[in-house]
C-alpha cells in the first residue's frame, strides 16, 4: 500500500496460500486481501437485492453472498447474477439440492456449512457440479452449528472441534472430487475461539481462509469483536478474504473491513480521516463537519489523509500528518495543507472551500487516486 506522509505500519508477512478464483476475483496467492459482504434483503426481491449489491460494490465490496433458503430464492439468482456488478456466492444451508439451481444461474461460488447438511447424496451432486462448472466452494464451519460427532468428541464447539471438522471436509472434497477451488472459514461468535481455530487450521492447510467473527453483534460491538479477531489474524499473516459480520447495513461491513486493512497498511480505498474528540476549546459544530467530510470521503477512492479539528490553537499542529485539514474557530475556519495554514474562511463556506482544495490536491497528485 502506498503510504501518505509520515505513515508507519506493522511489518506483516502474509502466509502463502493457494490462489483460487471467485469468478474473476482472485483470492489467496499474491492477491490483495479481498473484502466481501452478504446481502440481508429477501433474495426473492430481485430489485432490492440488486440495489443492495450495487451499494456494496460502490463502497468497495468485491464479492457478495446471498442467502438461498428456498426454491424461489434459487430461481431469483439467475437475474441477480446477470445484473450483479460483483461475483455472487450462493449461501446454502439444509436444502443443498438448491445448489443445482444456483449453479445453473451462474453463481461464482457456493458456501456450504457442513453442520447443516442433511443429505450426503445432494452434497455429492453439488460438489460434482461445482467441479464441472469450475465455481469456488467455501467450507464454512460455524461453531454454533457444528456436527454432532465433533460436539460429542470435544463436548464444546471450540477451536479443536472446528478445525477437525474443517480438515475432514477439505479432505473429503479433495479425495472424492479432486476439487481445489476451495476456501475455508472457521467462525465462532467468540473472537478468541475464532482466532485459535484459524491459527490451528492454517498450520495444517494452505487453502485460502475467509476470516471474520460470526454473529458478532451491532455496529459498535460487532466492529470491536471483528476488529480484534481480524487484526490479530492479519498481523500473523493469516487471512485472504474478510467478512465483517454486523447486525447493521451490510455497507458498513465493507467500510469497517477497509478501515482494518488500512490501519494495518494492507490496503486503502477511501480517505483516512483524523478528527479530534473536541473539548471546551471547540466553538464549531465539529460533529456535523465530520459527518459531512466522512460522507464525502466515502464517495471517493483515494489514498488521502484528511483532518477535521475543533480549534485553530491545536488543530493544525496536532494534525500535521494530514495532507489537508480544517480547524474550526468562532465563525471562521482554517484550511491547512501538509501542516501549513493556507486559507481562513467563513464557517458557512468552510466545507465548500475545503472540498475544492482536496480536488486541487488530487489534480496535483493523481497517483493518490489509483487505489
Ligand atoms: S483540537 Fe482543539 S478542540 Fe480539538 S481536542 Fe484538541 S484542543 Fe480540543
Structural class: alpha/beta
CATH class of the largest domain: Alpha Beta
Look at the structure and give the mean pLDDT.
94
What summary fits the major beta sheet?
8 strands, parallel
Q: What count of structural domains?
A: 2
Report the total helices.
12
Shape: elongated
Proportion of beta-strand residues? 15-25%
CATH level-two architecture of the largest domain? Alpha-Beta Barrel
CATH superfamily of the largest domain: Dihydropteroate synthase-like
Number of distinct beta strands:
15
- Ions and ligands: iron/sulfur cluster
H/E element sequence: EEEHEHEHEHEHHEHEHEHEHEHEEEH
Distance between the termini: 8 Å
- What integer value in Å does the Rg equal? 23 Å
Q: Helicity range of the residues?
A: 40-55%
- Spans of 5+ residues with little confidence (pLDDT < 50)? none
Question: Any idea of the CATH topology of the largest domain?
Answer: TIM Barrel
Task: Please explain how this structure is put together.
This protein has 371 residues and is α/β, with parallel strands linked by helices. It has two domains: 244 residues, Dihydropteroate synthase-like (TIM Barrel, Alpha-Beta Barrel), CATH 3.20.20; 98 residues, Sulfite Reductase Hemoprotein, domain 1. The chain contains twelve helices and 15 strands. It has an eight-stranded parallel sheet with strand order 8-7-6-5-4-3-10-9. The protein has a five-stranded mixed sheet with strand order 11-12-13-14-15, covered by helices on one side. Strands 1-2 form a two-stranded antiparallel sheet. Helix 6 packs parallel to helix 7. The protein starts with 19 loop residues before the first strand and ends in a 7-residue tail after the last helix. The mean pLDDT is 94. The site of iron/sulfur cluster has 12 residues, from helix 11. Iron/sulfur cluster (SF4) binds next to helix 11.
